[in-house]
Amino acid sequence: MALDKSEVEKIAQLARLHISEADADEVANRITDILALIDQMQSIDTESVEPMAHPLDAVQRLRVDEITESDHRDEFQTLAPETQDGLYLVPKVIE
Amino acid sequence: MIEKTAAELSQALANGEISSVELTQSYLDRIKKYNEELNSYITVCEESALVQAKEADKKRVHSDSSPLLGIPLAHKDIFCTNGVTTTCGSRMLHNFIAPYDATVVGKFNDAGVVMLGKTNMDEFAMGSSNETSFFGPVRNPWDTNRVPGGSSGGSAAAVAADLCAMATGTDTGGSIRQPAAFCGITGFKPSYGRVSRWGMIAFASSLDQAGPLTKSAEDAALMTNVMAGLDKKDSTSIDKPVEDYTATLNDSLEGLKIGIPKQHFAEGLTADVEKGIQEALCEYEKLGASITEVDLPNNHLSVSAYYVVAPAEASANLSRYDGVRYGYRCANPVDLEDMYNRTRSEGFGEEVKRRILVGTYALSAGYYDAYYRKAQKIRRLIKNDFVETFKEVDVIIGPTSPHTAFELGTKTDPVTMYLEDIYTIAVNLAGLPAISIPAGIANGLPLGMQIVGRDFGEAKILNVAHQFQQQTDWHRQKPNFGQET
Questions:
Q1: Residue A34 belongs to some domain of the structure
Q2: Is the pLDDT of residue A1 over 70?
Q3: Chain B partners of A87 at a C-beta cutoff of 8 Å?
Q4: Please, what is the end-to-end C-alpha distance for chain A in angstroms?
Q5: DSSP state, A54?
Q6: Is A28 inside any structural domain?
Q7: Which of B45, B304, B389, B418 is least surrounded by Cβ atoms within 10 Å, i.e. has the fewest?
Q8: Across residues B153-159, what is the average pLDDT?
Q9: B117 in helix, strand or coil?
Q10: In a domain, B281, yes or no
Q11: Is pTM, for the whole model, over 0.90?
Q12: Which residues of chain A are within 8 Å of residue B297 when distances are taken between CB atoms?
């Protein structure tokens, strides 16, 4: 399946990535090549095959819903680009 | 001393021939001298390493006899290390100082192992040559114009050049085994879920697995003894008792059944590598093993299925990098949307962005069944091939890579690079354990042999690898780089 520039822009928007106008064709070509590689698997009939989500078919282990973590807010906030009064700051969303 | 295996160093430390402080200092000196050229370390922890070494020497006086006590190791920069920069080879995390230790890191600390630093890698472990790192490529000590393989290229080069005694790595599609093959060392990927992924930065969660890069199979067993085990903090880690992987290293291989997949000796395999592997197989026959050809009919679909599963899971895992809580944020964003878009576009490199786009496409509305679900079905077929084969044989052996290390900058097309992992990827899709060990030298470059085992067949693989290393000295061969007389 070949992707064109506008489809790449649409996917980039979904992935929150910006692809410059100058790069869009190149990116579309590379991804088209990768999709051609991927499409090799389409030739196999898998109608009756059960999909495998986990290599050992293990199921998710559950635990009791109780708090086990301690509070590290201050420590974690030192890693953030911008914080104020214990909150993470982002550009203004609502005027 | 620095060229010795961890097992030998352990002996030397126990006998008092050398202290951990002296040993650590000699590795630090070598790093200072040679790392600039190899670029195998992103961060070197000189001070804390010497503190840990002193601590280890003290513990030894108090008769602590943990086998890896005081041995200097390097961690791939994908493992979170408390208080130490953890970059994952990316600009996105170039300033990220991890606030906690990964489970694997904690286990080595508890075992008294000394951390020399953090090794270079392909960005977010996406690559087979270590050329996608934001911190520049790593060079192969066997020939500095060549790549060390990837993504654990820094770990492999550091072990091969004696810039550490042993190292950790991670393997999603071959990222431990292929660099081990290119650098002439031993690299072991345990079964999926055997080692905790907690604190290991996620790439593709249903495939990622941590393991050791070492100078021998015995060292790999010693490291796996420390790394393996259930971790309640990783819901995919497996609740199965951990064996002592050193206990069966010396078992006889008399009667061992080895399967040789015809698909691994087909078109694309270079003559040099094929010859090396055939000679290695003769060694196994001498040890009493029998060899039969086996069929993995769906092996050729593994790269296709992988390049759906891995990018799809990566696109979800990497959505967390939004410039809000940690890591890189673009300068002067005009609004929230602009901040997300520019942070991610400037913070990620080309290959990472490419894979996020492929994964986003595969998971987008209308395509899920055709791509992700289809790939999961192919994954089942690939696993079934192995299940059938392991009814007939004990281990599967073949080349790790179709060729030896290639030159930097020569594989610029992504699809060509993806096909690098043609012999290793199926193993990840099936969740099986596999090791790469040195099996020869062709035109001055090491070549690797892969041994694949059954689910949780770690002990058998290590036994099979160790027995080969008792008969041959390929794992003792050293590059000329950094040799001091």
A1: yes
A2: no
A3: none
A4: 43
A5: S
A6: yes
A7: B389
A8: 98
A9: strand
A10: no
A11: yes
A12: none
Q: State the CATH number of the domain containing residue B12.
A: 3.90.1300.10
What is the C-alpha to C-alpha distance for residues B243 and B76, in angstroms, rounded to an integer? 25
- Does position A17 have pLDDT exceeding 90, yes or no? yes
Separation between Cα atoms, residue B281 and residue B289, nearest integer Å: 9
Whether residue B129 lies in the annotated active site? no
Closest Cα in chain B, distance from residue A28 (Å): 10
How much is the average pLDDT of B122-140? 98
Name B324's Cβ contacts closer than 8 Å, sequence gap at least 6: A80, A81, A88, A90
Would you call B54 a catalytic residue per the annotation? no
Which residues in A lie closer than 8 A to residue B336 (C-beta atoms)? 90-91, 93
DSSP letter for B97, please.
B
Has residue B125 been placed in a domain? yes
Q: Total domain count for chain A?
A: 1
- Note down the domain range covering B412: 6-256+392-476
Tell me whether residue A18 is in a domain. yes
Rounded average pLDDT over B171-196: 98
Out of B304, B336, B430, the one facing A93 most closely (by C-beta) is B336
A44 touches chain B (CB under 8 A): yes
Return mean pLDDT, chain B.
97
Residue count of chain A, please give it: 95
Q: Which residues contact B70 (CB under 8 A, 6 or more apart)?
A: B13, B19, B20, B23, B24, B53, B56, B57, B60, B112, B113, B114
Asked if B353's CB is within 8 angstroms of A81's CB, the reply is: no
Is B323 contained in some domain? no
Q: Is B286 part of the annotated catalytic residue set?
A: no
- CB atoms A46 and B374 under 8 Å: yes
> Measured between CB atoms, which of B298, B307, B432 is closest to A37?
B307
Q: Could you give the number of structural domains in chain B?
A: 1
In a domain, A90, yes or no: no
The per-residue pLDDT for range B378-435, each reduced to its tens digit, is 999 999 999 999 999 999 999 999 999 999 999 999 999 999 999 999 999 999 999 9
What chain A residue is nearest to B326 in terms of C-alpha separation?
Answer: A80
> Would residue B348 count as lying in a domain?
no
Residue A25 has pLDDT above 80, yes or no: yes
Instruction: From the candidates B175, B191, B237, B302, give the one annotated as an active-site residue.
Output: B175
Beta carbons of A52 and B377 less than 8 Å apart? yes
